[in-house]
Specification:
This protein is mostly helical. The protein is built from eight helices and no strands.
Length: 200
């Protein structure tokens, strides 16, 4: 790839950096026109974060890992913000300009020089969660307990339904299980008798 870029750069007499920037701009414009600002922003940010996470995992630096966790926390909040604002401003005649502004803001937050994601994480996300941490934990525990109870009840109802359905077809699941288990037990007993005869 670098050989191709060098050949193009030599032929056109355009520096590599300018060539890459120009091609990125053209490709970004085409993708934005086809898929929209929101999809391009999500694709760019997700790809960037996955690559940076891979790089941090390879180096194993703890400070960088903490740094990447703040990026992912920011990205989760950003995804929610993006979905809500896209729905709110979809009717607006300025929707494309708003999406472009959000894309610019996202890029500003993700580049390491500005550390925008860390600033938003520590000044907004962290403070908000820290302030309501006990309420969030109790609500989460309550939801977890409720969901567990609901799933247990649904499982019991599902089992009862299956048993009734099989019973309506004349199939007794308990007889089938006892035959299967009994057949397995009798075959084991037969094997042990054969082994005892061989020993004699």
């Amino acid at each position: 790839m670098s050989d191709l870029m060098s050949k193009v750069s030599d032929t056109t007499e355009v520096p590599n950096n300018s060539l890459v920037a120009g091609l990125s701009l053209i490709l970004g414009s085409i993708l934005t026109r086809i898929f929209g600002f929101q999809a391009c922003g999500q694709c760019f940010s997700f790809t960037y974060l996955v690559y940076k996470t891979f790089h941090v995992q390879e180096t194993g630096n703890t400070a960088d890992k903490i740094h990447m966790l703040t990026y992912w926390a920011f990205y989760g909040v950003w995804t929610l913000f993006d979905a809500v604002t896209a729905g709110l401003f979809s009717w607006s005649p300025w929707a494309p300009q708003i999406e472009l502004a959000k894309l610019f803001l996202l890029a500003l937050c993700l580049i390491p020089q500005t550390q925008g994601a860390q600033q938003i994480y520590y000044h907004v996300i962290h403070k908000g969660i820290k302030e309501y941490e006990t309420q969030i934990d109790s609500a989460t525990e309550s939801i977890k307990t409720s969901v567990s109870q609901i799933m247990t009840e649904v499982g019991q109802l599902g089992l009862e339904f299956v048993l009734e359905f099989l019973g309506s077809m004349g199939i007794n699941i308990f007889q089938l299980l006892s035959k299967a288990l009994g057949g397995g037990a009798s075959s084991l007993q037969g094997r042990s008798k054969n082994d005892a005869k061989k020993d004699d």
